[in-house]
Amino acid sequence: MTCQVYFVGGKGGVGKSTTAAALAYRFSKEGKNTLLVSTDPAHNLADLFQQKEKKGQYIPVQNGLTLFELDPDQETVHYINQVKENMKGLVKATMIDEVHRQLDLVSSSPGAQEAAVFERMTTILIEERNKYDAIIFDTAPTGHTIRLLVLPELMGIWMDGLLERRRKVQENYSQLLYDGEVREDPIYEVLQRRKRKFAQVRELLKDSETTHFLFVLNPERLPILETKKAVEQLQSFGMNVKIIVVNKVIPEANLDSFWSKRKEVERAYLDEIKTIFSIKHLCYIPLLSNDIRSLSDIEAYAKYLELPEMLYS
Ligand SMILES: Nc1ncnc2c1ncn2[C@@H]1O[C@H](COP(=O)(O)OP(=O)(O)OP(=O)(O)O)[C@@H](O)[C@H]1O
Ligand SMILES: [Mg+2]
Question: Is residue 28 a part of any domain in this protein?
Answer without folding.
Answer: yes
